[in-house]
Specification:
46% of the residues lie in helices and 9% in strands. The termini are far apart. Among the domains are: 82 residues, Roll (Ubiquitin-like (UB roll)), CATH 3.10.20; 78 residues, DNA polymerase, domain 1 (Orthogonal Bundle), CATH 1.10.150.280. 22% of the residues are buried. The chain is built from seven helices and five strands, in the order ααββαβαβαααβ. The strands form two sheets. It has a three-stranded mixed sheet, with helices on one face. One of its GO terms (biological process) is protein secretion by the type II secretion system. Keywords: Membrane, Transmembrane, Transmembrane helix. GO terms for molecular function: DNA binding.
Length: 229
């Protein structure tokens, strides 16, 4: 009798077992789907991290390169170089960097007086002497380097030319003020000489002075005994 009752109850409540089984299947399916979503999310995060890392490195490199390009200041380079003038420098610029940018030393440059590895700072004034030329430790600016510096721009050449001592004005060293001490050279011509020197480079011979606009044969004849290069 008991067995029949059990069978009867099973027949009456069979759906309960089905419901429990279905619930288990649904729960298992949900857990499987949830685990798959977590795995996909982790893989996406790892891929994104791998992609972003090179970008961050590139940004850091680019930033470093940009720092190197930032202008630290300006220096003036004159004397026995191919292209005297004013040049931009960075915080790590050395003398040889600026000389290279200026086209290099001329053949008559006295490089024994130069320290190519010298570090430059803003407002430095560097003069490259010619062979056999003595350079005084004078500077037209407060930021002059310890390397050879110009003397003609301090007025020495002008004073020597005007006092009749026979010392000649160096066309490659004298500034506009010194050049005006020469007979026949006024402010305009002096500026033209300086501009020519900065654009074309140092004068190779005193005859090259005639290449400057406004300096003719007559003017040159009156100047040739008072100038040198």
């Amino acid at each position: 009798m008991e067995r029949q009752e059990i069978v009867q109850k099973i027949r009456q409540y069979w759906y309960v077992g089905v419901i429990v089984l279905l619930a288990g299947v649904i729960l298992w399916g949900w857990q499987s789907q949830h685990r798959q979503q977590l795995q996909n999310k982790n893989q996406t995060a790892m891929t994104s991290s791998q992609v972003e890392t090179p970008s961050a490195e590139k940004a850091a490199v680019s930033s470093s390169q940009e720092v190197k390009r930032i202008t630290h200041g300006f220096v003036e380079l004159k004397g026995a170089v191919a292209k005297p003038g004013i040049y931009q420098i960075t915080a790590n610029s050395r003398l040889f960097d600026v000389v290279t940018e200026a086209g290099g030393y001329l053949e008559n440059a006295d490089t024994t007086q130069m320290n190519g590895a010298q570090k430059l700072t803003d407002q430095d004034y560097i003069y490259i002497p010619q062979k056999g030329e003595a350079v005084q430790a004078a500077s037209p600016t407060a930021g002059t380097t310890d390397t050879a510096v110009a003397t003609a721009t301090t007025g020495t050449a002008a004073d020597s030319a005007s006092d009749g001592s026979g010392t000649k004005v160096n066309l490659n060293q004298a500034d506009a003020s010194a050049l005006q001490q020469l007979n026949g050279i006024g402010p305009k011509k002096a500026e033209q000489i300086v501009a020519y020197r900065e654009e074309q480079g140092s004068f190779a011979t005193i005859e090259d002075l005639q290449k400057v606009s406004g300096i003719g044969a007559k003017t040159f004849e009156s100047l040739k005994d008072h100038i040198t290069v």
